[in-house]
Amino acid sequence: MGVFSWNCEVCGQSIKSPFGERSCTPPQAVAWQNKLVAILPDGKVLRGYYDGYGRVNDGPGPWPLTHEGESVLDQKTGPWDYTQRKQHGDPAVWHLKCYEHAGEPTEYPGPSHPADDQGHFYTLEDEVEKAEEFWKANR
Ligand SMILES: [Zn+2]
After folding, report:
1. pTM for the whole structure
2. Residue 114's beta-bridge partner residues?
3. Predicted confidence (pLDDT) per residue in 21-60, tens digit
């Protein structure tokens, strides 16, 4: 299965995968959208960098690590798949910046929407423009 993602609870843009066109880092203009906070249905809060495959890591990619030894789902069974979704439920996700802007909620609000762009197949200019518009309206 390829990369996948969810849309941020606050701004609605996707949590970005760590992969740029020619590198293992997201384009600089949207790199902040790779930093996320995820709240799992059981209330666990994870902060870190998104790996593009359902895991939160403690540094920008490429990573050998998961965030504090935890994945968004079950580390032992590897990346996300539908079986795990049924077992664990979908996480709620925020860009770190948006999470802080929202006052760092601690309650699980229900699952975030899957991202149509999979956190990867977006047009950089469009994403930058959407973000600029959002932050202009939500200072
Ligand atoms: Zn956001």
Report:
1. 0.81
2. 6
3. 666 677 889 999 999 998 888 888 888 888 887 777 765 5
Domain ranges of the chain: 28-137
How many angstroms does the Cα of residue 91 sit away from the middle of ligand 1?
A: 15
Report the amino acid identity of residue 135.
W
Q: Which segments within the chain are labelled E, that is strand?
A: 35-39, 45-50, 56-57, 92-95
Specify the range with the lowest mean pLDDT, choosing from 37-41, 74-78, 130-134: 74-78
Q: What's the gap in Å between 8 CA and the centre of ligand 1?
A: 5
Alpha-carbon distance of 125 to 78, in angstroms, equals: 33
- Rounded-to-integer distance, Cα 139 and Cα 129, Å: 16
Q: Of the candidates 85, 118, 91, 82, which has an alpha carbon nearest to the alpha carbon of residue 36? A: 91
> Which two three-digit tokens encode residue 80?
């996300």
